[in-house]
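Friendly challenge for the regulars: who can give me the structure tokens for this chain first? No prize, just bragging rights.
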Amino acid sequence: MRIEDEIHQESFVSDRQKLLINVLHTHSYVVNELNQFFKAYELTRQQYNVLRILRGQYPESVSIGLIKERMIEKMSDASRIVERLRIKELVDKKRNKDDKRETFITISEKGLQLLHNMDPKTDAFDKIFEHVKDLDVAELNKLLDKVRSS
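First reply, four minutes later:
Bragging rights claimed.
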């Protein structure tokens, strides 16, 4: 559906303004779809992101700093997210014996099992873009990379 129809606005100051509103509106749509998916697993998008980062490093432990660096949503409070995952027993935390300020995080067996169970269902993420042709997907990826590289 056209952005004009979605937000009931027929004109924009410029095509770039329309693009910005379109990207923001699409972001909101995608986030809402993802939130619904993760709700069934009692996770947030950020918690899922942290679990995926940790699984990628498994069996190695990582610091909160590395998690922050790799997170999609950079403004997230990684320490708080990790603590909530620890309470759910999805991650293990260990303090550095030499530097008590540093904590090492590892995904737990329970966390690995949760992701394993979720993996086949994450194909649903692709359905968000099922109406977009492969060639257009590739072009959109190039354009979004270009926006972030400015």
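DSSP finds eight helices and three strands in the chain. The radius of gyration is 19 Å. Your move, everyone else.
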